[in-house]
Design brief:
globular, 26% helix
Length: 85
């Protein structure tokens, strides 16, 4: 929350939510908590960037991984995907 600042824009929040959803679905483990286990470390702050990469850390008790996510944005929509190795 501190990295987002006091008034984050909707486009950034949408992208972060999509990224955490992609991570959650890639892990496929019940009990995964968006706030506790999925930590975005790099995301675009420029809302004009239509495609690119984001970085995140997954920190579960029995699984840890740093990963790169890909994203596309268009007309108020966003899609984010990740492949875990």
């Amino acid at each position: 929350m501190a990295a987002l600042g006091p008034d984050p824009n909707l486009e950034t929040l949408l992208l972060i939510w999509c990224a955490k959803e992609a991570l959650y679905k890639a892990i496929g483990q019940k009990g995964t908590d968006f706030r506790e286990h999925l930590h975005l470390t790099l995301w675009p702050t420029d809302t004009n960037i239509a495609e690119g990469k984001m970085e995140a850390n997954i920190t579960l008790t029995d699984f840890e991984q740093t990963c790169t996510l890909q994203f596309l944005r268009w007309d108020g929509y966003a899609v984010v995907w990740v492949a875990l190795g």
